[in-house]
Amino acid sequence: MISLTLKFLLLTFGFYLLIRLAKRALRRWLQGLLGGEPQKTSLGAELLPCSHCGAFVDPKLGLHKKGKFYCSQDCAQQGPAVP
Q: How far apart are alpha carbons 53 and 65 in whole angstroms?
């Protein structure tokens, strides 16, 4: 039979692994949510966040105005989002 100490060690190690995996997933999710950095699609194309709405768009489809990137003419007219 497995000793109580070994059970405790295995359980502690299991919780440690779960916490590490959860922290990594949360960090990646928050980075994607907050945006700012270009992201890549499954095909490898970079996507940029719109300065107004935050939607990620292919740079070839969006437009630049006053040094900012926008996904559409509507967002460009409204200007950058105020945090």
A: 15
